[in-house]
Amino acid sequence: MSENNEYTQLVGAVQLPPIPLKRLDKELPLPKRAHTGDAGADLYSAETITLEPGQRALVGTGVALALPLGTVGLIHPRSGLGAKHGLSIVNTPGTVDAQYRGELKVCLVNTDRSEPFTVERGMRIAQLVVQRVELVDFVEVDALDETVRGEGGYGSTGTK
Prior knowledge:
This protein is mainly β. The protein has one domain (21-132): Distorted Sandwich (Deoxyuridine 5'-Triphosphate Nucleotidohydrolase, Chain A), CATH 2.70.40.10. 12% of the residues lie in helices and 33% in strands. It is built from two helices and ten strands. The chain has helices at 3-14, 79-85; strands at 21-23, 41-44, 49-51, 56-65, 71-77, 87-89, 94-96, 103-110, 117-119, 124-132. The protein is globular and about 55 Å long. The termini are far apart.
């Protein structure tokens, strides 16, 4: 099966709506997936910036989106940048709400303790995953129903 046919079948199977995208920087590539069927589309840095160890910076991507109501954009780190260079995202995943129309920005952080890292303009710095979300209302109650887990939270199940 050709890659194009495979992609067409995937899109038909999940019925993804096309997302309106405004290119704010015509010299940067549009977000794109590295492989057919990948969840995340790569986002590119609109600037060159050097992050010293422990430093963070808000970096533009040169694109804005019009996500439909009932969806959310989640900005995730790229695994290779994290594993090889310690580059991550402070608020991972970053949340892009459906009503937001500004430039997508990524709050990068250099977690390496000794080496600065230079983000070059046009470098792939993050991945955007678009998902459907359940829009729920909340109702205040006096008590919650009992469960086996109860209030067991952080570390309550141990490590073994």
